Amino acid sequence: MPSLPARYSRSIDWITVGIYLLMVFVGWLNVYAASYSPDAPSNAFSLSFSELMQFNWFKQILWIGTAVVLIVVLVVIDYKAYDTFAFGLYGGMIVLLLVTMVIARPIAGSRSWLELGPVRLQPAEFAKFTTALAVSRFMASTNLRHQHWRDHLVLAGLTLLPPLLIIASNETGQALVFGAFLLAYFREGMSPLILIVLAAAGAILILALLVPKLWLVGAFTVMLGLVFLFNSRVLRHHLPLALSVWGVVIGMVFGVDFFFNNVLQPHQRKRIEVLINPSADPLGVGWNVTQSKIAIGSGGLVGKGFLEGTQTKFDFVPEQSTDFIFCTVGEEWGWVGSLVVIILFMTLLARVLYVAERQKSVFGRTYGYCVASIIFFHFAVNIGMTIGLAPVVGIPLPFFSYGGSSLWSFTTLLFILLAIDAYRKQDLVR
């Protein structure tokens, strides 16, 4: 019987591990560049530990080191434990989110950080992998294509409870990530009609902010009328449904103003206004995005060079080592470097989907698709907000952004999948 490390050395997916290590290394280089100052001492060895702890690049080294220890723990744990204790981990995280709401100190208007001495952790980051485990466990026990409506409610409850608690802590960006789970549910048999309806609802809400409401209502009414005009059978059999849909659309169009003015907070309204009209507040809420686009555009084809970014050096872009780390890539490495980073993410996503598809169990496959969905959402939205294509919602770029909570959560998310995959030839006991 081979030892546990020997078995893992043969069955672990080393290609994915290699992509992970490369991304973490490239991410650290950009954190270093984003926090680099020409006035800082050139010899780091001459500084004390307390002095080094003032630099994000040094603290990120510590986070990477602890992430390596975390990886060892994740792959040594019996792979069946992730299935067996999925609901327990989920319940523990719900309790932790509730505790965070009560005891966390407000930081930038949000009660989402737990402070343990010099270390700050954000439980919302870790809620992603516990929710992924819980929904995967639940879906392994039922067939989504033939679920009773009560099963759909249970799945919706498991998915929505964490983001509702996160929103209650005033951390809207992290809550939006949980919408990515729909992609995993779609793979397991959820009706595509649900995705179509949600996409259509989103498009209607966006259009209601961009065009006059009467025009939008008129266009939808004309489209509905044309359907009935050219297909009388639809008129006979689906008139009540069509009128109901028409009423819902009208309600959404005219209700968007109430939601925008009475539900969203002032800073959230400003971010949407800046997305629609980038010149609305260039020196206020729009400052980050404006400076980010300047930094990325100034990089040109091949960039200004490592540590040569002027936007980076002089702190024109706030949060440049965290949420806006991609503008450092664009400025110093240019279009070529940005393309390489995007290719790295696409390669990782393709590999995760490949690993998910070769699982023998529904639990492993569903969890793999949850991993891919979460990483894709972060990747797409983070880069989108740095170039002005998405509102600034404050979510990190996986494996690139500075921060221990982000690195630990994505490392945990990925390596639980690799631990399950290492034993894919053994069916999970359900």
Write the layout of secondary structure elements.
Layout: H1 4-11, H2 14-35, H3 49-52, H4 56-76, H5 80-84, H6 86-103, E1 114-116, E2 119-121, H7 123-140, H8 149-168, H9 172-176, H10 181-187, H11 192-210, H12 213-230, H13 232-263, H14 266-276, H15 287-298, H16 310-313, H17 325-357, H18 362-386, H19 404-421
Keywords: Cell membrane, Cell shape, Cell wall biogenesis/degradation, Glycosyltransferase, Membrane, Peptidoglycan synthesis, Transferase, Transmembrane, Transmembrane helix
Subcellular location: Membrane
Protein name: Cell wall polymerase
Main attributes of the structure:
single chain; about 425 residues; mainly alpha; 2 strands
Structural description of this entry:
It is a multi-pass membrane protein. There is one protein chain. This protein is mainly alpha-helical. The protein has one domain (4-210, 265-421). It is 70% helix and 1% strand. The chain has a two-stranded antiparallel ribbon with strand order 1-2. A hairpin with a 2-residue loop joins strand 1 and strand 2 (119-121). The model has no long low-confidence stretch (mean pLDDT 83).
